Amino acid sequence: MTRVDFYILADQTLDARNLFICRLVNKAVSQGQNVFINVDQASDAQVFDDLLWNFRAESFVPHEIQHAHSHTQGCPVHIGWSTPINEHSDVMINAGNRLPDFFGRFSRLIEVVVQDDAILQYTREHYRFLSNRGYAIDHQDMRLGA
């Protein structure tokens, strides 16, 4: 069964959430894991494409935006808004407002929550859906250290 983690941030902005997601991606890749970042649309994918190039001054995270014909051999990170083309089985980070059907293909699902009303609403819905189906959900409350 897919392991589920919710990271709860004290921040209120989408930018803070996206930057935190980039740090999670970087950590997963450094541990040899493949990552799929699920987004709502192409413009959201472009945001992560830019961030993964620039969020750390000293390096970047190898990645690609998923297209119908994209497949970079050995690329550890894919960003997309539909069913993944590549057979990733490690980590899906859901940066979209819906929980896609294919999340169960991954060993781990991550949701990052910020204190924004819209994000709080749909991540609560995701939590309820997962909880009602018996997924064990781990909480990482990042507000406790602030």
Topology of helices and strands:
Layout: E1 3-8, H1 14-30, E2 35-38, H2 42-54, E3 64-65, E4 77-80, E5 91-94, E6 108-113, H3 117-132, E7 137-141
Parallel strand pairs: 1-6, 1-7, 2-4, 2-5, 3-4, 5-6
Quote the distance from N terminus to C terminus. Answer: 32 Å
Number of domains: 1
Q: Give the overall silhouette.
A: globular
Number of helical segments with 4 or more residues: 3
Strand fraction: 15-25%
CATH architecture: 3-Layer(aba) Sandwich
Give helix % range: 25-40%
Largest sheet: 7 strands, parallel
* The CATH C-level class name: Alpha Beta
Sequence of strands across the biggest β-sheet: 3-4-2-5-6-1-7
The name CATH uses for the topology is Rossmann fold
Let me know the CATH homologous superfamily. DNA polymerase III subunit chi
Q: Mind telling me the C-alpha Rg?
A: 14 Å
Mean pLDDT: 91
What does this entry show, briefly?
It contains 3 helices and 7 strands, in the order E-H-E-H-E-E-E-E-H-E. The protein is α/β, with parallel strands linked by helices. The protein has a 7-stranded parallel β-sheet, sandwiched between helices.
How is this structure best described in words?
It contains three helices and seven strands, in the order E-H-E-H-E-E-E-E-H-E. With 146 residues, it is an alpha/beta fold. The relative contact order is 0.27. The mean pLDDT is 91. It has a seven-stranded parallel β-sheet, with helices on both faces.
List keywords for this structure.
7-stranded parallel sheet; alpha/beta; 7 strands; 3 helices; single chain
